[in-house]
Design goal:
Blueprint: H1 46-49, H2 51-58, H3 74-98, H4 103-124, H5 131-155, H6 159-179, H7 187-212, H8 226-255, H9 262-289
Helix pairs in contact: 3-5, 3-9, 4-5, 5-9, 6-8, 6-9, 7-8, 8-9
């Protein structure tokens, strides 16, 4: 089962036998876990060198984050995420300030989105993290978000600000639910969620084609009416599902001693998920605001 986020399907952030990233983490009272359960066991991984870590694994205890330089920590993930999201924010602010609402700026936004997509795909298929690609993606994504946010604000005043608050609320609530253990990220949970997410993307792609060829009017399933609101809410819930996978995979990466550079991939994945939620939240705010 692959991750919801393509960047997490690279190296340690992919499961061959588990739900998304690594082989199933050792459970209390379970069998001893050898190096096959840890994708970072080779190449100087602390679990392969630390007899105390090996002892913990042999007794079935959950792995503890290694105290070692060169290994990913939560601070690394937070710092890289702040840099990536900060780049998105700066790009959006500059685009908002320098590009007035017009057909030209809309064309630039589409171009920026395409460049961001290409950079994201290149990084997704690289075996190692490239900060330049990730920050480049963030910059172009920021330009796209800045232009469309200004367009929405020109018609629905305050919509971008409300969308930011909504994105923060969804992200915070998802983290709270995850940390409280109210959602358990299991193989079954991931399979069901990914099936829904893939079906959603396929249906939206078909809907886009129908609208483009004039078969479905007023945006089809993405209309600005009640149906569009239902689809938007579903999209935001899918984004929250992506976040739970992201949180779990980051925890696994830290616990299993992922290399420090993997923090860039974690930040990249989180940024893509938050952009997804923000764009859907922006549409939802506009729908509920009506045609003012």
């Amino acid at each position: 089962m692959r991750s919801s986020n393509p960047v997490f399907s690279r190296r340690g952030f992919s499961r061959d036998n588990g739900y998304a990233g690594f082989n199933a983490a050792p459970q209390a009272g379970g069998p001893a876990v050898g190096t096959q359960a840890n994708p970072y066991a080779q190449g100087g991984n602390p679990y392969a060198q630390n007899p105390y870590a090996q002892q913990d694994l042999q007794h079935g205890a959950p792995p503890q984050a290694p105290v070692s330089t060169g290994r990913m920590t939560m601070d690394d993930v937070v710092m890289r995420s702040a840099m990536t999201l900060g780049t998105v924010t700066v790009g959006a602010i500059l685009a908002w300030a320098l590009l007035p609402v017009s057909s030209t700026s809309y064309g630039l936004a589409i171009g920026a989105a395409l460049v961001a997509f290409v950079l994201a795909m290149v990084q997704s298929f690289k075996r190692t993290a490239s900060p330049a690609l990730i920050l480049g993606y963030a910059a172009f994504e920021g330009v796209f978000l800045g232009v469309i946010s200004e367009m929405y604000n020109s018609r629905w005043s305050g919509a971008p600000f409300q969308a930011v608050l909504g994105t923060m609320a969804v992200s915070g609530a998802t983290l709270l639910v995850y940390k409280a253990g109210w959602v358990r990220v299991t193989a079954r949970y991931a399979r069901i969620g990914m099936t829904i997410a893939i079906a959603f993307v396929v249906v939206m792609a078909v809907n886009l084609l129908l609208v483009a060829f004039g078969v479905a009017g007023d945006g089809g399933l993405r209309s600005m009416g009640p149906l569009g609101a239902i689809v938007g809410i579903l999209a935001i819930l899918i984004g929250a599902f992506f976040l739970t996978l992201d949180f779990k995979q980051i925890e696994d990466g830290i616990a299993y001693g992922a290399p420090k550079e993997e923090a860039w991939l974690a930040a990249f994945g989180l940024t893509m998920t938050l952009v997804w939620i923000y764009v859907e939240m922006l549409r939802l705010v506009a729908i509920f605001s009506g045609d003012d």
